[in-house]
Structures are given as C-alpha cells and as structure tokens.
From TrEMBL:
Regions that span the bilayer: 16-37, 49-67, 104-122, 134-153, 173-192, 204-228, 234-255
Superkingdom in the source lineage: Bacteria
Protein name in UniProt: histidine kinase
CDD domains from the UniProt entry: HATPase_UhpB-NarQ-NarX-like
Stretches assigned to the Histidine kinase/HSP90-like ATPase domain: 482-572
Coiled coil: none
Enzyme Commission numbers on file: 2.7.13.3
Length: 572
C-alpha cells in the first residue's frame, strides 16, 4: 500500500475554510445573476443565464467532491471550472475599462479548466501525459495569445490599439481552429482511454466521457459557425445544457461508491465461513474490480492461492498480521480515488485471512490433540499388554503352581505328613514370590512412595538415581493426585534419560510453586541435544502433561546440558 499511501491522505482544512468557499460560490452565483434579478434594463440572453447556473453547479459539485475526497484533485479542478464561468459575467458588470476588457477576453476561460478536468478524471485531476499537456496548451495559446491579439485589432474592444478588420478576421479564424482542434483532440483522447480501460477505469472515466460528448457538441457549434458564419442557437442550447451532465455523472459516481461501501455489510457477514478459494471473488465483487488479485508474498514477487506467479500490475494494498505482510490486494489504479472503499475491502480481507489463519491453527491444534490422544490410547494399550504379560508370565504362573501344590498337600497330608510339610514350605515360598511380583507390578502402576507425598517420592527417586541428584522443593500443601503422578513420572523419565543418554555427572530436581502453577524442573550437566520428536519417552511425558492442561518444555542445546520443565496447574 506504500505506493498509494499519498492518495489516502485526509484534508487538513477546517470548517472555516469550507464555509468561506461555499460563501464565495453563493456570492459569485448571486453576483452573476444580479443583472437578471435586479437590472431589467440590461439585456441578458437566456443561454447566458444557463451558463451562469452551470458555473454554480460545477462549483457546488466540485466542493462536495473536494470535501468528500480531499486528495482527489478533480474536486478542486471542478470548483475552479465553476468559478471560471463567473469571470466574464462578473467583470462585465464593472464600469471599468480594464474590467470590460477582461470580460471580452475570458468568456472561454472555463474551456481551459474543463479540458483539463475531462482529461484527468482517470488520474484524479493529475496531468500525467504529453497529450494532456499539448491539448491544454492549445487552449492556453488561444486564451493567452490569440484572444488578446484579436482584441488589439478588433474594432470596438477596450484595447483596440490597431484596428484592422482583416487581421482581426484571420486571428478569429485561428482562434476557432485552435479551439476546434483542442476540443476534438480531447474527445478523441478520452475515447481511446475509455476503449482501453478496465471496468473500474471506465466507471471512473464516465464523467470524462460525458465531458467529451459536450466538447464534441461545442466542436460542432464551432464548425457550423465557421462554415456558415452564423451561430446555431439550437445547437448552442443543447451544448450548454449538456455541460450539467458532467458534475451530475461525477456525483453519481460518488453515490455509487457510497452505496458500494454500504453493501460491504454482506461481505463482512460472510467472512467467518468463507473458504480461501472464495475470498478473491468476494473482494473483487465488493470493490467492483473483476480482475482483482489476492497475492501472497513469495521469493520473487507474489503468487496466487494455487502458487502461480501474479502478473497483474496496478495499485496494491498490503495486509499485515503481527507486523508482517501476509498478503496484498492488487487492484485497478482508478480505485485509488475511492480510498474509503479500498480501505474497507482491505479490512475485510485482513479479517478473512485472520479467520482462515485461526481456523488453520485450530485445525492444527485439533490434529495435535487427536494425535496426542491416539498416543495416550496406544500407550495405555501397551501398558495393559505389559501388565497382562507380566501377570501371565509371573504372578499368574506362580499362583497356578501354588494351586497345584495345595492340591498335592491335600492328598499327602494324611498319607505322608513329611512330604506334605515339605510341600507346605514350597507353597509358602511360592506365595511369597507371587506377592513380591504383584507388589513390583503395582509399584509400576502406582508408586507406593507417592502415598507419603510428592516431596518424599522425589527424594526416593534421587536416592535410587544412578547419577548424584539434588532435590529442591518449595514448601506448600499437597497437590492433587493427578498432578503429583505427572510430576513424579516426569522426574522419573528425566532421571532415566540423564543416566542412559546424557552422560551427566549431576542432576537437580526442582519443585516450584508459582501461584496457580506447579513447576517440576529437572536439569543435568550432560551433553544435551535431546529431541522430544525422536523418542517416545519425552513425547509420552508431553501427552501426560497436556492432558492436565499443562505444558512440557525441553531445552537441550548441544554440549550445554538438558532442562526438562513441566508446567502443571495446581488444580487439574
């Protein structure tokens, strides 16, 4: 959006500025109509009254456009065009020779600004091409050089220093030819531009087309007068009345823009459920630019949603998230003259892309949760199979053997008491062994030492650790059982990893209580380089911690030791 940021500037003019301008328009219009309203003895042709009213319409519509789009120069240019209509009738009312000279000199002053206005509707009132300068220059030559020169030679003018009928006639012909070339050239340029413009460009050029039609009518009027030597009053009326179409069409364009902004409500309502593939079409419809492209930053420019390079040129509006540009709207340059609409559509695109990002993030997190659940289920299944296998291969077999021994004891106790006594001893040993295996198995499921509290259990882990371990615990009440289980198993797995892989010589276990959180942190001075994604142990710990809405952090830079930190809620 940097390339067009200057087009979005707001006017710094205050209310007093606009009040003074409107007062000037009203005063100029009233002054131009004074002869019609109050001086009945001063003859004023009806068509001249029309021109004066048209001047007021241009000035008023120009002020409205100027205030509505302060950085679009078409508004000020239209205002100046309106005032140019008043120069000749106002100066003609003054009883000064210089004022009468100005009145005769500048009746066509409005043509200069009107030509500039018609040529620059597409560029916001900015003259940008050589053709614009040449055509405006032709009108300027007629006004600045030929018109004063004609007044020097034409008999009856206030500055007729060298009256010469033939010279005045030649200069008059030159004036007409110059104006004819300028107005027909302007109409031709507008026609070419309209033919090659995009749909938004043609909408922006609509007042220019209306102006080109007006110029062609005046060109016809000049041609008829040149060929016949007489004015066509009917054609003059048609041409004069057609001028009002230019400000009307321009205001209709402003109204269409306002209605388009009002229609954005439907776009905003549909953003929440809009699919990425539908976004570009919705934005193009809202902005009125069917060729609008949503580009995404790539190494060598922008790409579309399918990854294809974006080749369209035009103005751009950047879309940012967290201070980083994530996309850009590429649209027709003519839309720069409606910054409110562009800004609203850009905001809609920002919201849509943010929603899509949040949806993608939610789906990613959901996938992670599903994956975590699957790992937890798989780990639970594996643990059940391990318990089943241990029961089958250990305690179950021992109990079967014990049952068989009891059956032998029952048969031998009366027939052979000595053998029965020997069997009782064997059965007792077998029972003790089975009980020991069951206790060992139960410790794997639920460490008995946790019954005495997490601090005691961590001390027990440190005592049994193959690496010298230090335990530091913040004092506090007992934690909920699920939190103690999770903290114990995190410490147990971390100690086992430190002994197996880290080649550490010391380990520190810290139990921290920070308000709503309980933190278990195990730090060793080993070789580091632990990667949670490569093994099942740390991943299983992460799953266990996340089921309690906690968070597991593994910091393990190479050759700098490993820190495993589990942040658990004090209340699961």
């Amino acid at each position: 959006m940097d390339g067009t940021a200057h087009r979005f500037a707001r006017s710094g003019h205050g209310p007093v500025f606009w009040i003074l301008l409107w007062a000037a328009v009203v005063a100029a219009e009233f002054g131009a109509l004074v002869p019609v309203l109050f001086e009945r003895d001063v003859p004023v042709e009806a068509v001249d009254v029309v021109f004066r009213l048209i001047g007021g319409s241009f000035a008023a519509c120009g002020l409205i456009a100027w205030h509505r789009r302060p950085d679009n120069r078409s508004g000020p240019l239209m205002t100046v065009t309106g005032f140019a209509f008043f120069v000749s009738p106002l100066s003609g009312q003054l009883d000064w020779p210089a004022a009468r000279a100005v009145s005769m000199w500048l009746p066509d002053l409005w043509v200069l600004f009107f030509v500039l206005l018609v040529l620059t509707f597409l560029t916001g009132g900015r003259v940008q091409t050589k053709a614009d300068r040449v055509l405006a220059g032709a009108v300027l030559v007629e006004l600045v050089i030929l018109a004063p020169l004609w007044m020097l030679f034409a008999d009856g003018t206030p500055i007729a220093i060298w009256p010469h009928e033939r010279a005045a006639e030649i200069i008059d012909i030159a004036q007409r030819v110059t104006l004819l070339a300028a107005v027909t050239g302007t109409a031709a340029v507008v026609a070419v531009r309209w033919w090659s413009a995009s749909a938004p460009g043609r909408r922006a050029l609509a007042p220019g087309v209306a102006g080109a039609v007006c110029l062609l009518l005046f060109a016809g009027l000049l041609l008829v007068q040149f060929l016949t030597g007489e004015k066509s009053l009917a054609l003059l009326w048609i041409a004069a009345c057609s001028l009002v179409a230019v400000p009307v069409v321009f205001l209709l364009g402003l109204l269409r823009s306002r209605l388009a902004r009002g229609g954005l409500a439907g776009l905003f309502r549909g953003l929440r459920t809009m699919q990425p593939a539908d976004l570009q079409g919705a934005l193009a419809k809202a902005l009125g630019d069917p060729d609008l492209v949503v580009g995404y930053p790539a190494a060598d420019g922008y790409v579309d949603l399918d990854g294809q390079p974006v080749t369209r040129s035009g103005s751009t509006a950047g879309i940012e998230r967290d201070g980083r540009q994530v996309a850009v709207l590429i649209y027709d340059r003519s839309l720069d003259d409606d910054p409110e609409l562009v800004d609203a559509v850009t905001s809609a695109a920002t919201i849509a892309l943010e929603n899509q990002h949040l949806n993608a993030e939610a789906q990613r997190r959901l996938a992670e949760v599903e994956s975590s659940r699957e790992r937890i289920i798989a780990a639970g299944d594996a643990e059940r199979r391990r318990i089943e296998r241990n029961l089958h291969d250990g305690a179950q077999q021992g109990l079967v053997t014990l049952a068989m021994q009891l059956s032998l004891i029952q048969r031998e106790i009366r027939r052979n008491p000595a053998d029965a006594e020997h069997l009782v001893t064997s059965a007792s040993d077998q029972l003790a062994q089975s009980l020991a295996e069951l206790r060992e198995l139960a410790r794997g499921i639920h460490p008995a030492v946790l019954d005495q509290g997490l601090e005691v259990a961590l001390d027990a882990l440190a005592t049994r650790s193959a690496i010298p371990a230090t335990v530091r615990c913040d004092p506090g009440p007992r934690l909920p059982q699920p939190v103690e289980f999770a903290a114990y198993f995190v410490a147990s797995e971390a100690l086992a990893n430190a002994a197996k892989y880290a080649h550490a010589s010391a380990v520190t276990i810290s139990l921290l209580r920070t308000g709503p959180q309980t933190i278990i942190e195990i730090t060793d001075n080993g070789i580091g380089g632990a990667d949670p994604s490569t093994g099942t142990g740390l991943r299983g710990l992460s799953d266990r911690v996340e089921t309690l809405h906690g968070h597991l952090i593994v910091l393990s830079p190479p050759n700098a030791g490993t820190t495993i930190r589990a942040e658990l809620p004090a209340q699961p």
